Amino acid sequence: MLEAIVAVYADWGIGANGTQSVVVRADRRHFREVTGGAAVLVGRKTLADFPGGRPLKNRKNIILSRTCGPVEGAVVARSAEEALAAAGEGERTFVIGGESVYRALFPHLDRVFVTKLRCRPHSDAFFPDLDADPAWRIAEAGEEQEEDGIAYRFLTYVRLRADGAPAPAPGNRTRMPL
Q1: Are 9 and 22 in contact (CB under 8 A)?
Q2: What sign does the dihedral 13-15-21-25 (CA atoms) show?
Q3: Which pLDDT score is estimated for 170?
Q4: Where are the domains of the chain?
Q5: Number of neighbours of residue 173 by Cβ within 10 angstroms
């Protein structure tokens, strides 16, 4: 099962000029909790936006890039297929951005953890609008919260299988009621 985690704005924007325009501290904590100990698939430009431009601690880092050289603490994959192979069978793996990496791996996603921020800053990068895609539905929704005047909520979307059932949840996940 391939999963993604993303913070989106009201228009499904994810940032501008290679960085998030609006950041909520609770989203960063949520990201660490959800992805801790898992493999993460990230693009070269998103990696450059991380603290110190270094791979994330306590995760297997896989960088999807045709132009990136070797990176200490990470595996560099040149294609989506190579990135998926590097993640390994049965290992929990999250796509964490940016836009081109999300799009390249979107057909393989079964579950997406979305922090939806109720604001609309300028964005030049976007995540596909799962609300408008009939192949996806909300499986879990947290209560709306607010931080520094920005309303947000944590949502989990699942891709529906051909029989209309949602993709199975990975083990050891706590479900939030809708």
Answers
A1: yes
A2: positive
A3: 64
A4: 2-7+17-159
A5: 12
Structure tokens, 51 = 């603290």
> Do the Cβ atoms of 31 and 46 come closer than 8 Å?
no
DSSP result, the chain: -EEEEEEE-TTSEEEBTTB-SS--HHHHHHHHHHHTTSEEEEEHHHHHHSGGG-PPTTSEEEEE-SS----TTEEEESSHHHHHHHH-TT--EEE---HHHHHHHGGGEEEEEEEEES-----SEE---GGG-TTEEEEEEPPPEEETTEEEEEEEEEEBPTTSPBPPPPTTPPPPP-
Q: What is the CA radius of gyration of the chain?
A: 16
**47-78 confidence digits (pLDDT tens):** 998 889 999 999 999 999 999 889 999 999 99
Contact between residue 41 and residue 93 where contact means Cβ atoms under 8 Å apart: yes
- By C-alpha distance, which of 148, 157, 149 is closest to 115? 157
User: Model confidence at 1, in pLDDT bands (50, 70, 90)?
Assistant: confident
Assigned token pair, 163 = 């029989």
Q: If you classify domain 2-7+17-159 with CATH, what class do you get? A: alpha beta
Tokens of 36: 């801790």
